[in-house]
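We store sequence with structure; for instance:
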Amino acid sequence: MTGRFNRLSMDNVTAEDKAVGAAVGAVLAGAVGLALINPLAGDAVAETTAQAAAKNGSVAASASNGSATLSAAEARAAGYKVPPRDVAPDEVIKLAEKQVGISEGPGGQTKYHDWFVSTPHAKATAKRDGGFSVKAYNGAQWCNMFVSWLGAQTGVKNMGWDAYTVQHASWFKDSGRWGQKAKPGSVVFFDWDRGSSISAIDHVGIVVKDNGDGTVKTIEGNTNNKVEKKNRSKSLIVGYGYPDYKA
C-alpha cells in the first residue's frame, strides 16, 4: 500500500511509488522524531509538543536537554505506556519479537496507527504539516509508527517518535545519535536503491543483531503488510539511530 506520511516500506517498490515518496518528503520536510518530549523543529512551529500538551494539562516537561520528568498519568497522556526510564535493548527486542506476525486490518489499519493518532505528538505534527486531521494518519505507511510504538511502550529515552522515516533519521543525526554500526536495539534505516543519503530513506526497523556476514537481522513493521523478521544486506542500510539505552 502507498502511504502519505513516510517513504515506501515494502520489499518491492516501483519507480512510481518512489516518486510518490519523494513528493511526500517535500510536503513533510519539517517532521522530526519526539525524544521523550522533544521540541518540534521547523520554522512553522515555535512551541514544543510538551508546551502544547501542557496547555491541555497533560504534560509537565523540561526540554532544556531533551529530557522530561513525567508522572505515570502525564506519561500516559503523552502517549507512553510507562514513564521514560532506563531500558536495556533486549527489552525492546523482546517486545518487537512478540509483534511478529501481526498484520493489517481493514483499510490497512493497525494498533500502531491507533496509538500514534491518539498522541499529542500526532496532533502537533498534523497541525504543523498543513493542518490536516490526525485521522489522515490512519491506514498510512506504518513502519515508523511501529518503531515509535516500541519506544512508547517500553519508555526508552531518545527513541524518537514520527510517522516519516526521513525526518526521524534526520532527527537522530541532528541530535548526535547517528552512525554506521549495527547495535542491538538500534533503529535501522533503509534505502532500497542502495544509496547513502538520508533524504532517500524508504523504510525503518529495529536491529536484533549484526549477523557478521554482511547482513543484519531486523524486525520491521509494514513489511508485506505485517510485522516480520528479516535478514537485510548492509548495502541497503543508510545508517542507524541510537536510542539512549541502559549501559
Observations:
- Residues 172 and 178 are 5 Å apart (CA to CA).
- Helices lie at 15-27, 49-55, 72-78, 89-99, 111-118, 120-128, 143-154, 165-174.
